[in-house]
Amino acid sequence: MKKIIMVSAASLVLLSGCQQVKDWSNDLTGKKDQTEEKQQDEKKPEQTPADEKGNASAPEETTPSELQLDARFFNDIKEVDGHAIIQNPSNILAMVNKDYGLGEYKPDDLVRPDVPFVFGEEDLEKAHMRKEAAEHLEDMFAGAKKDNLYLTAISGYRSYDYQKMLLEREKEQYGDEKAVMAVAPPGNSEHQSGLAMDISSQSHQFQIDIPFGETEEGKWLAEHAHEYGFILRYPEDKEEITKYQYEPWHFRYVGKEAAKVIYDKDWTLEEYFDHVKEI
């Protein structure tokens, strides 16, 4: 944390003999009173604007432009059968989490990004992303390749039904408590938005696990993903905010502008929306 220390020094005014003579001459000419009045006016502190009741009002705080966000990028929520459902799910900044879900939404612009998948050329549902996110994913994989790092896509879009199957399978293997920390409920998974991709590498045997964050590929993604509009969605030590465990393999597309702010300020998507102001 940066601390700013302000030091104020008292001004010392020294009166010389010449100044005393000048003051005496002002008495004779009648200029002294005018001079003193002028000096007093100059010394008057600036007045703080008052409100209608006469109370001093504080100066308005300005919001940096990068923290100003158009209203269309905020979640539009409606309660459906006791669940908070996002009514503008195609919003590229839709905040999908355990509190806000997508219902049975399916994006209408899903495409297959031209990147290596762990399952090869097989035409699977999870080989797709929304068009804008897919294009930027291709750029990110190409950027890593320039640095001699080779990424592999593991899982992109997942439907409501597929997510439901995953959660049930996780519960059978690990129990309810552990399952809900690792797998989102159907309708509340970012994968359903078509904006998220799980990523690994051949050097890590295509595993998606916490040690991936310590690989060269995992470190590169954490450092450079924002340059392509992606964020590390579930960072370490942010579990209380995201309600999910650390996932160094899970990257979410939010656009370059928002991604840069989130990266620079070390925020989650939830923290980003806590700070941005609607315009």
Automatic annotation (TrEMBL):
The lineage of its organism: Bacteria, Bacillati, Bacillota, Bacilli, Bacillales. It comes from Rossellomorea marisflavi. Transmembrane segments: none annotated. It comes from the Bacteria. GO terms for molecular function: peptidase activity. GO terms for biological process: proteolysis. CDD domains: LD-carboxypeptidase (cd14852). Residues 127-256 form the D-alanyl-D-alanine carboxypeptidase-like core domain. InterPro entries: DD-CPase-like, VanY-like_core_dom, VanY/YodJ_core_dom, Zn_M74/Hedgehog-like. Residues 29-54 have a biased composition (Basic and acidic residues). Residues 25-66 are annotated as: Disordered. This is Peptidase M15.
